[in-house]
Amino acid sequence: MGNPAFANASKEEFLDYVSRHARHYGVSKVRVRLMHPALAEDSLEAVDQRYFGEGSRYHPNFRKSRLRYKNVELLWNLTREFLRDEGGSMAEYSHVLWVRDDVHFVGDVHLRLFPEPWTVYSTPMAFPCARQEHQLGDVSDRVLLVGGRAADSFLRLHSIHRDLPSIDLDNARHPENFLYAVAKVLGLPWEVVAQDWLPSYISVHYRAAGPTTEAINNNNNLSGSAGPPTAAFCLRGLNRHLLMEPRGPCIHPAKVPYDSCPFA
Predict the structure, then answer these.
(1) How far apart are CA 146 and CA 114, in angstroms?
(2) What is the pLDDT of residue 212?
(3) Which domain of life is it from (predicted)?
(4) How many CB atoms are closer than 10 A to CB 158?
(5) Which of 32, 73, 111, 122 is the most buried (most CB within 10 A)?
(6) Is the pLDDT of residue 81 over 90?
(7) Has residue 228 got a pLDDT over 70?
């Protein structure tokens, strides 16, 4: 389910919320664009292969990823227009941070750790505190920190998927591997960094069973008929045991005062 804090919010209220919080954290200029939920896919007939390992152009995961890349490219085009209107150039951005819409940060990102303007940075697929092991090309797409010089070519993902001939792109095993292949084809270095450099989890709001009638009346855990469902917040990939006994780069447990999700 969606974030209940915005369930009944108007577009104007949402934009005001984002702007106020951005200014609170020191942002000097804020520009927000809400993508239309009916954003259309390009014709699937134009896709020869490149199904991100899903085997079919009609697979929902393939179509979701493809539409997501279109969103990214449209947003980047608007960002470039914004810079042009302000009289600037692409060199004005030292970094571009691409964050999935379901990501929740549990720590700060220190830009001094990402000095190369032509490099794409990400973590491995594992979450913080887990082992760092990963297969070459298996990278996380939760958060990408793109060097300012690399952004203008890398973030044209939809056009690259549709138009750029490459065996590496044809053979991508999954959407994250496709991103890695894009960087490789464009000649951009990709650096896999420790999870605590981009400390994040996938956040979820879900419908949890409401407290039972008896529990409400007696303030205890007696069984009985459940009340109406309530919204609950959790983090996928969060493991309390690993927080206390990490097997890889980790964060302090005090930074994660949330529940782990009761589902995979």
Answers:
(1) 9
(2) 44
(3) Eukaryota
(4) 19
(5) 122
(6) no
(7) no
Q: Is 52 exposed, middle or buried (0-12, 13-18, 19+ CB in 10 A)?
A: buried
Integer CA distances (angstroms), 12 to 1, 32, 244, in order: 21, 11, 42
Contact 81, 200 (CB under 8 A): no
Q: What is the 3-state secondary structure (H, E, C) of the chain?
A: CCCHHHCCCCHHHHHHHHHHHHHHCCCCCCCCCCCCCCCCCCCHHHCCCCCCCCCCCCCHHHHHHHHHHHHHHHHHHHHHHHHHHCCCCHHHCCEEEEECCCEEECCCCCHHHCCCCCCEEECECCCCCCCCCCCCCCECCCEEEEECCCHHHHCCHHHHHHHCCCHHHHCCCCHHHHHHHHHHHHCCCEEECCHHHCCEEEEEEEEECCCEHHHHHHCCCCCCCECCCEEEEEEECCCHHHHHCCCCCCCCHHHCCCEECCCC
Instruction: Give the count of domains, the chain.
Output: 1
Which range has the worst mean pLDDT, 23-27, 196-200, 228-232?
Answer: 228-232
Amino acid occupying residue 8 = N
Q: Assess whether pLDDT exceeds 70 at residue 44.
A: no
The answer as to whether 232 is a domain residue is no
Report, as an integer, the average pLDDT of 212-216.
Answer: 44
Q: For 172-189, give one letter per residue: b (16+ CB within 10 A) or e.
A: bebbbbbbbbbbeebebe
Stated pTM of the model = 0.86
Give the model's pLDDT for residue 211.
57
